[in-house]
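Q: Please design a sequence for this.
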């Protein structure tokens, strides 16, 4: 999976649209107990994300691979063929 679009949501959740059109959410909260992710407890720090295509990285140095994300995310819609509702899947940040 390659990340096409990425957005930080309240509650330590990432909204992700993959390059294959799948859209879903990934809950980062379970990772906040680990030292590398502790700075992300602050919502301002959590919002400082970068899309590396095959990984998500935060300014503090924490990162998650798409393998980890894909194994645990909740797909909410398949947007293949342009069928995404922009109100459900807003495009806020896209970095490639």
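A: Design:
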């Amino acid at each position: 999976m390659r990340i096409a679009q990425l957005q930080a949501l309240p509650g330590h959740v990432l909204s992700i649209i993959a390059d294959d059109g799948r859209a879903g959410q990934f809950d980062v909260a379970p990772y906040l107990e680990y030292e590398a992710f502790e700075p992300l407890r602050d919502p301002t720090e959590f919002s400082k994300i970068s899309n590396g295509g095959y990984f998500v990285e935060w300014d503090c140095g924490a990162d998650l691979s798409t393998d980890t994300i894909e194994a645990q995310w909740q797909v909410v819609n398949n947007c293949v063929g342009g069928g995404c509702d922009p109100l459900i899947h807003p495009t806020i940040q896209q970095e490639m």
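Q: Thanks. Anything notable?
A: DSSP finds two helices and seven strands in the chain. The chain has one domain: 3-78.
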